[in-house]
Design goal:
The protein is of the alpha/beta class. The protein folds into two domains: 2-137, Response regulator (Rossmann fold, 3-Layer(aba) Sandwich), CATH 3.40.50; 142-245, OB fold (Dihydrolipoamide Acetyltransferase, E2P), CATH 2.40.50.1020. It is 33% helix and 31% strand. The chain has helices at 11-24, 38-48, 64-70, 89-96, 107-119, 126-137, 186-192, 236-245; strands at residues 2-7, 29-35, 52-56, 58-59, 62-63, 78-83, 99-102, 142-146, 152-156, 160-166, 169-174, 179-182, 198-202, 205-208, 212-215, 220-223, 228-230. The strands form five sheets. It has a five-stranded parallel sheet, sandwiched between helices. A five-stranded antiparallel sheet has the order 12-11-10-14-13, covered by helices on one side. It is elongated, with a radius of gyration of 21 Å.
Length: 251
């Protein structure tokens, strides 16, 4: 039996989550405790040593990140985020492999997440957490680009329109009409930018979603500099999901 706790400051949300778990996982998972804030949540984890923590990001006396910061070097539990913050729902799960649920929690969605956890249990990964935290707090604004000659160029991430593969190099196209060629391949660039608003629209193209002006159902999109790019048919479904979640207008 897996032991779990819920750290949630809204009583109705807590009861709803607890009821769904008890109704569907009575023989697999048991809720052993509940708290509403940061300090009490830390104490509860220390006292009960749960295997799984359902954690609200916004709490009455702080946020869930403070709890995870406390256990960053000693965690033995997995985390399922529950939150009313809607901006990063699918992207957080796709890019960081974190379990993530938006309120109001739907029973079928919770079952899907818990089933994934049960099928592949793993301890909390502090490196993934830090990347996820940086995305949520939007702290990473610049990127250092290694040039072919060994120099580095510092670029504001928001100024990057898109990145394009060029063999083992990558070309960065920016809002000031400059092109920077770096010595990193596109796969490496994607891993670096995965905490920002970038999406792989094509095997050779990584797009900054902030610069989309228009998209049509043929797969063609227009950027803020009037550049036109094509979303591959393979990536179109996930791309449309991202656009809808980020409240872009789809023409």
């Amino acid at each position: 039996m897996i032991s779990a706790i819920i750290i949630e400051d809204e009583n109705a949300a807590y009861q709803h989550l607890k009821n769904i778990i008890e109704r569907n996982y009575s023989t697999q998972l048991t809720i052993v405790g509940h708290e509403t804030g940061v300090e009490k949540g830390i104490k509860l984890i220390n006292d009960l040593n749960p295997q799984l923590v359902f954690l609200d990001i916004q709490l009455m006396d702080g946020d869930g990140f403070e709890i995870l910061d406390h256990f960053s070097n000693s965690s033995t539990f997995e985390v399922i985020f529950t939150t009313g913050l809607k901006d990063y729902k699918e992207k957080a799960m796709d890019y960081f492999a974190f379990y993530y649920l938006n309120k109001p929690i739907q029973e079928d969605q919770l079952i899907g997440v818990v089933d994934k956890f049960l099928s592949k249990q793993s301890a909390f990964n502090s490196e993934k957490y830090l990347t996820f935290k940086h995305q949520m707090e939007n702290k990473n604004h610049k990127i250092s680009l290694p040039m072919k000659n060994g120099d580095f160029t510092i670029v504001d991430i928001d100024d990057i329109l898109y990145c394009e593969a060029d063999g083992s190099y990558t070309n960065f196209y920016t809002t000031d009409n400059k092109v920077y060629t770096t010595s990193n391949n596109l796969k490496k660039v994607e891993s670096i930018l995965m905490q920002a608003t970038f999406f792989r629209i094509h095997r050779s193209t990584l797009l900054n979603l902030k610069h989309i002006v228009q998209y049509n159902n043929t797969g063609e999109l227009v950027l803020s500099n009037k550049k036109k790019l094509l979303v591959s048919s393979r990536n179109k479904t996930n791309f449309l999901r991202i656009l809808k979640l980020m409240n872009y207008s789809i023409s």
